[in-house]
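Pinned message: reference record for phosphoglycolate phosphatase
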Amino acid sequence: MRTVIFDLDGTLADTSADLIAAANHCFRAMGAGDVLDPVADAATAFHGGRAMLTLGLTRLEALSDAEVNRWYPHLLGAYGDAIDVHTRLYPGAMEAVAALRDAGVRVGVCTNKPEGLAETLLTRLGVRGAFASMIGADTLPVRKPDPAPYIAAVEQAGGSVAQSCLIGDTSTDRETARAAGVPCVLVTFGPDGHAVADLEPEELLAHYDDLPALVERLLPVIAA
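Predicted structure (tokens):
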């Protein structure tokens, strides 16, 4: 069964502003004010909470693993309290998902966001039911770019890894697809723009309107 697995942050939805807000909540609690910028630092937001804390603490000349570990639970708590204030699905994302499902393609999500937060966000956005699988950063003992979460997402959706592809936005997604031996599609509407072409994915996606035809090229129907 053909299957398309989506990353979440920076791929299905622009979550950067809410992520940056959660990080800045921590920096304000430190007495430092808003250290990260929701526009200039959006790309770091898509690499997760620890990346944002690392960047901010570096700017404050207070970086240590202990400080990152100390503030990470606070960041997750602040994010969970205001997870969908600014977050928006990218234009055409759910229309493309619907078109894939209508074509008999299974769809799922594999994200490095903690599973509970990912479930909450997709539910609040009103789209959780569109996806047959959802694997988060803590669903398994390992996370992307280890291929195991991706494989689990495909299998949970009832698909075949050999007839699947990953839609993402970062080097983590590229490395995950390579490790799983599947095609990778990277979106160009995130903060890195067309720079993701340097990662040499099998395909680039400029708008979700183009995804159904792209999937047909990557995963052609195999005659019985």
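Pinned by admin. Summary line: Residues 133 and 156 are 5 Å apart (CA to CA).
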